[in-house]
Amino acid sequence: MSRVLKFRKGLNIELKGAAEKVLVKIPHAESYAVNPADFKGLTPRLCVKQGDKVKAGSPVFFDKYAPEVAYVSPVAGTVSAINRGERRKLLQVVISPDTEQTAETYSITPEITASRDKIIDLMLKAGYWPFVKQRPYGIVANPKDKPKAIFVSGFDTAPLTLDMDFILSGQIENFQKGINILGKLTEGKVHLGLSNADTGSKLPKITGAEITFYAGKHPAGNVGIHIHHISPISKGEIVWTIDPQHVAMLGHFFATGIYNAEKIVALCGSEVKRPHYLRILSGTSLASFGEQVDQDKKRQARYISGNVLTGSDVGANGWLGFYDNRISIIPEGNYHEFLGWALPRFKKFSTSKSYFSWLTPNRKYEPDTNLNGGVRAFVVTNQYEKVLPMDLYPVYLLKAILAGDIDKMEQLGIYEVIEEDLALCEFVCTSKIEVQTLLRQGIEMMIKEMS
Amino acid sequence: MKSLRKLLDKAKPSFEEGGKLSKFRSVFDGFETFLYVPNTVTRCGSHIRDAMDMKRTMSVVVLALVPCLLFGMWNAGYQHFLSIGNPQSLCPTFWFGFCKVFPIVVVSYVVGLGIEFAVAQVRKHEINEGFLVSGMLIPLVMPVDVPLWMVAVATAFAVIIGKEIFGGTGMNIWNPALLARAFVFFSYPSHISGDKIWVADLSKGQGIIDGFSGATPLAKAAAASPGTAIDLPSACDMFFGFIPGSIGETSKLAILIGAVILIATGVGSWKIMLSCIIGTLATGYLFNVLGGDNPYMSLPPHYHLLMGGLAFGLVFMATDPVSSSQTETGKWIYGFLIGLLVVVIRLFNPAYPEGTMLVILLMNTFAPLIDYYVVGANIRRRLKRAKAALSAIK
Questions:
Q1: Chain B interface mutation, best of A148, A270, A300, A352, highest count of B Cβ atoms under 10 Å
Q2: A42, part of any domain
Q3: Per the CB < 8 Å rule, is B386 touching A376?
Q4: Residue A314 main-chain phi, psi, to 5 deg
Q5: Domain containing A47: what range?
Q6: Is residue A277 part of a domain?
Q7: pTM of the full predicted structure?
Q8: B25-35 vs B2-15: helix axis angle to the nearest 10?
Q9: Which of A25, A227, B131, B379 could cross-link A279 (Cys pair, CB 3.0–4.6 Å)?
Q10: Max CA distance (Å), chain B
């Protein structure tokens, strides 16, 4: 019998607009983009220019400090724009798709799939390497490292929860193949975390991975929480993580040899008329989804690539992020509320019992992006700890980051967390402290110090 | 409401940087954010945020203090009319107390908020709500006869030295309200100790009936000589608060209502309150056993909660999230030690009958040390794991 880990700490935020289990295949979008900002700590070096023809899987840029890692186009087409921001920082490489799609193909031999080095070489060349992220730091893995384990979380607990079983239902063989490939990459184990809820899922039958079941509220589905409880990262240790859809995509590639960036993404949020799942390519433009936004509500909408806790505000004309599995569209909160802080506010969700949302645990909410107050210093205690199932003192860690104290950051466990793990802390914070931004600053300090 | 919003929007530019009234930016900002939740939206990190903010947190504490304030006003009148042997009905009694207490509240808020506004203006940050609570706590821990100028000076001291020089709410080491009381205690001891100052106008000595003593139960207990019984008010009187004492501390019932509000909303830490009560009862019981014929030591342990300011202190002062222990394990230790030390000081300190104020300030000072060891245990666990991992590699 597999292990079951139960967490008491955590928080499920119930939102309106979860995706129905309907899958729609979308024809080609107007444009696709590869966004270097999706890969933390990357310094891109372009290898295409405007007007170049690319195939699906052709490289568009490399990492300046790890040139063996290729970042590739998700689609065949023409590089229509190279967007740059302040100080010529590369923002996006935009590609307009051709009507006839061609993809890079590679021959997969048993010789390749038998050797760790050859698998890595092929993944690097074919643009599959950025799937693999490393802990500590949550950056693209260094192919020269030898991780002590690889972790995959096979379920999702974030707000507007994705049904991973539904997403992977047609992909189980590819997923199995992907797990087998990952097994070659580490001398340790491949860990697969699954939900304890019995949903008739096929994932528990996967072989070649150590399966652990988890019960609890968000962030129980975060891979960082799994690592912390199964194989915590100490100084000098490295663990790799990979998104479950990426495992299936990797498996598909090693089965066929054809580059394919197709994935299933949820279009969800209270502003979407009929939230559902889409089959699209990585990096798809969001522009065409504007039609699906409920205009009757007459509200300004925020387009988020990713979930509402950790995603990025990409705007109505933005593109889907590389690691994101959902597009969340929620109302903006740019309005003044008369004496709002003193009112009962029955429609707002709060963990505080001075509001009434604790009386209606099954009610679904439509929160907007209002900060709901002003930024203050740390005052209230034991808020973060209640939503973080880890043996770690988040406020002390954040204070060490504010003080720039590298030793303290290390002692307090900065290697064990990335932004998504502390996202709920930011949500519940009475003082409205920017926890995720602060943590990334700390991680950047660590990377600089350690290199 | 729309016209009010329009008025604010119209006035706003003149308060901003470079505007005619930019010297009053912090004041305008304070009032605007009081009237309206700002329209700021999340820029980075989590896109949605909990509806809880600092204003609401602090308002809950102020609300929890209201029963103590109202009872304190009534009791100020009741004790006064008792001392002149002329008991009155509810309204005149309350009105008398209101006239005595309300000016203290006003002085405390005006001085404290004035300094907060000025500092927020100079430092160019938003006004912190922390003083809404401190400003209410300060009058409640003062004797009713305290001169108003003393309240003003003590408040200014507490806000400037106790809070602003550390960086404002959230950065302070000590509870500001207790610091204000300690300031009065050390600077003007005759106004905050003795038997005469706890009842309004008693020190003037006019029309006081014979045999009326304004002594608090604590003073009576401390003064009792070995072998005699202590002349205490009934436990019932002490629970409901018909006794002399600082304005807010006398009614344990009102404090209990406040405690229920704080615990139900999760704003106050029940762990600190409970561990403090455990500490008090355990220590009280210990001295019961050891006490011999000392009447104070053989007092039932729960009397320590009924007498003096301990109940008020443990519910409203010890639970201050900023100056108390920040870790959950630390809170148990911190609360227990407060209860323990209060009883020890009450029983063994001949100079002053009450110990709550100084004990909480002392434990405020030691709270970071407690946390240091609690967090240190976490660090050591991690270090041990890292060493094990390292030796496994070798």
A1: A352
A2: yes
A3: no
A4: -100, -10
A5: 32-104
A6: no
A7: 0.93
A8: 160
A9: A25
A10: 88
